[in-house]
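BUG: 3D viewer hangs when loading the predicted structure for this chain

Environment: internal workstation, default settings.
Expected: structure renders.
Actual: progress bar stalls at 90%.

Input used:
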Amino acid sequence: MTPIENQTPFSILDQDLYKFCMQQAVLEHYSDVVVNYSFINRDPSMRFSKSALSMLQRGIEKMAQVIATKDELEYLQSTCPYLSDKYIQYLASYRFNPLEEIKCSLNEKTGILDLKISGKWCQTILYEVPLLALISESYYRNVDTDWNYNGQHENIMQKGTMLAKAGCNFSEFGTRRRRDFKTQDIVMSGLAMLPADYTGRCTGTSNVYLARKYGVTPVGTVGHEWTMGVAALEGTYENGNSLALQKWYSTFKGNLGIALTDTFGTKAFFANFNHELASKYDGVRHDSGNPYDFITRVYNHYKQLGIDPSTKMVVFSDGLCPTKAIDIKKHCDRFSLKCLFGIGTNFTNDFHCASDPSVLSKAPNFVIKLLRCNEKPCVKLSDDKTKHAGDNAEVAHAQNHLTELGLF
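Structure tokens produced before the viewer hung:
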């Protein structure tokens, strides 16, 4: 690590690729929309302290100093040609404005962190990933400090080798859930060292800074946020997936062609994923629910549309570890489906307690979700009920509405 890398946030590229891509799509289709986001801690037992809040607030204030440098913009232009010249020009003048757009406080009695983001969608969309990384690092530097880096390099080499030898193609997706930047740097330095003669390989990382540093491909698909926002703004849950997919395709012309399937449940998705869209898109991403049932469903859907399933890709990104990924690959092989695995928490937040290495150090389950677009509520109806997001009344309304239509 370089000295500057110890001072997060330090680069606009310390960000997941799909956020830049979604920012471009938002600028093209919804440049004036105002949004609200909220932090959600899915594990209330992980409580924050005053010192954690102070560290987080210092990091948030530093975001105002982060700008895209000339060489970073040139890297994006040369490496990601689907990012338009117009977008690169926008990013060149982009500035975080955290004092105006982020509100952060702590209930000292309960340890509950309250963090909200508000502003134009095109301006605030880049906050989520670096904020989650800052929140995680603040927690593990100030609250849960019973850990160290011992064995991290050896662990990632073992995991990467296990996956590659089993023929799994996989990417590192761990920015938002990393323990800190150093951990993710250790992970990528190890994965970049894997021999090239295995049948599987590490295809890249979602983190653009680390992709550049280690000479690998920055990779990404699209987030639930895009479909949630489009559905809210266009006033339709039943057609939210198809509208989001059409607008995404119009922006990227087939690049970044993996469709996310579980924003409103897979039943609603496949009802929207007609022959035209299924032909245009390279494949689909599974992010919740039973992966084995999903494989069967994807295979049957392509067959019913008259599309050869073996020409399509299925990306899996739901709580994976090497053992689970290898088992899923074997199942995909039975259906002649190509597959790829995005692994996050298991790569960048897999630790044991320093005081007792036989005990696992708890990983975070923090998210930041889109709440409203132009005051219209946004919801997510995952295939895993614990991942539902949004106002409870609106979640119930959306679920009931789709159920009445036979789509949930």
